[in-house]
Amino acid sequence: MTAETEKTPQEQLAKGSQKHLKAIAKRAYGSQKKSLIDDEQITRFLPMVHKIVQRAVTYLKPPLSYEDLVSAGAAGLVKAAHDYDPSHQAEFKTYAYIRIRGAILDELRSWSSVPADVNKQIREATQLSMELTGQTGTTPTDEELAEKLQITVDKLYRTFENARAKNFVSIDSLPENSPPLGSSLTAASPAPAQQLEQAELVGKLSEAIQQLNGRQRQIILLYYQQELTMKQIAEVFNITEPRVSQLHASALFNLSVKLRQWKDDG
Questions:
Q1: What is the pTM of this model?
Q2: DSSP string, 18-69
Q3: For residue 211, is pLDDT > 70?
Q4: How does residue 235 score in pLDDT terms, banded at 50, 70 and 90?
Q5: Any domain includes 28
Q6: Structural domain count, the chain
Q7: Is-contact 163 122, C-beta < 8 A?
Q8: What is the mean pLDDT of residues 214-235?
Q9: Domain that holds residue 203
Q10: Are residues 58 and 150 in the same domain?
Q11: Residue 190: is the preceding peptide bond cis (ω within 30°)?
Q12: Residue 5 has pLDDT above 60, yes or no
């Protein structure tokens, strides 16, 4: 067995990504001004691309592949290097993270269209959940919501997962100058003018998370705050990875309902 075949798929993919970084830069940005971040520095940030992609694979749907997201993230990294201005931006690592994440989310969005009937299912589930929550003060369980919609729980989970893929309810899709969910739970907004609004959002989000059932709340905190993967969370709870994905999608759906109600009431 050669040394190359002994490498993991992600290591082999990383090597391939490094090879095409220069090609991407030359093709897309070759005519632009010289970057303050050289190719060697860009390559050192490639693991960040893979880390972000690994957290985005939850939303992958054919024909989009892991490699497609790595390529999009690598392009975002190169563009970040060429656009970076240290006199106006934060440190490059922070700036690169925002641009990589944005490029990956854009790639996911471009493939996330769903049929009209699926959109209808998502709207019906959302509207009914909001109505029931308004009547009782608590979010309906998955079983209760499925019964009211007259569908199976499995079909309801597919609706949740379609909603997650279509709308990126996970808050990973906040505007590119906003922090991801994990950061939102522990950090204030860096812009003083936005601190009050950010604090209010964090407060409402934290309150909504506390209202999730125990397992869903733990999954949200492990995934966003502790940054565990779906596979690692499955090992923690001794359940299957697809089951973690279902619970994750259900939790995000419930959070979106809570935050939508807060916005409507506000």
A1: 0.62
A2: HHHHHHHHHHHHTTSPPPSS-HHHHHHTHHHHHHHHHHHGGG--TT--HHHH
A3: yes
A4: very high
A5: yes
A6: 2
A7: yes
A8: 88
A9: 116-265
A10: no
A11: no
A12: no
The pLDDT, as a whole number, for residue 112 is: 62
Say yes or no: 185 and 252 in one domain: yes
134 and 87 in a single domain? The answer is: no
Q: In what helix (H) or strand (E) does residue 76 lie, and over which residues does it extend?
A: helix 66-83
Phi, psi (5° rounding) for residue 145? -65, -40
35 & 95 share domain: yes
Burial level of 8, CB count in 10 A (0-12/13-18/19+)? exposed
CATH number of the domain where residue 161 is located = 1.20.140
> Packing angle between helix 241-265 and helix 230-237, nearest 10 degrees?
110
One domain for residues 146 and 224:
yes
* 3-state secondary structure (DSSP) of residue 226: coil
For residue 129, pLDDT over 90 is answered with yes
pLDDT tier at 157 (50, 70, 90 boundaries)?
very high
- Same domain as 252, residue 120: yes
Higher pLDDT, 234 or 264: 234
- Give the integer Cα–Cα distance in Å for 74 and 23: 11
Domain boundary among 110, 139, 167: 110
What's the confidence (pLDDT) of residue 193?
46
Distance CA 98, CA 102 (A): 6
SS (H, E, C) 135-153: HHCCCCCHHHHHHHHCCCH
List the structure tokens of 27. 């093709």
Domain-terminating residue out of 90, 110, 130: 110
pLDDT tens sequence across 54-70: 877 766 766 778 888 88
On whether both 120 and 106 belong to a single domain, the answer is: no
